[in-house]
Amino acid sequence: MYESCPVCGQHYEPEVGFYWGAMYISYGFSTAIVFLTGILLFYLAHDPPVWVYMTSVAAVVVALTPLLFRYARVVMLYLFGGITYDPHLAGSLPHHRIEKPDN
């Protein structure tokens, strides 16, 4: 992840440990996915055995983990970081190139 925005220079980590709260947001996303997968399996697969539920839920959550990680951080920034996106401002800033970090 970039340390700051390549367009406007906004630093993405307002304080040390800021993204620890994103774990709770990610947990909420995962819980919603578990319930949604369970309900879909119940109605579409006509209440399969428990091992089908467990395997399906685990596969879906593992497959979506990269998205959950990124979107939880974005939601954390928008809700608690005081960062908002203004497309008019972004279009007026001079573009400069920032190299992506190696880590």
Automatic annotation (TrEMBL):
Q: Does the keyword Membrane apply?
A: yes
Alphabetized, the UniProt keywords read: Membrane, Transmembrane, Transmembrane helix
In terms of InterPro entries, this protein maps to:
DUF983
The answer, when asked if Membrane is one of the entry's keywords, is: yes
Q: Which residues cross the membrane?
A: 24-44, 50-69
* Name under which the protein is recorded: DUF983 domain-containing protein
Q: What is the lineage of its organism?
A: Bacteria, Pseudomonadati, Bacteroidota, Cytophagia, Cytophagales
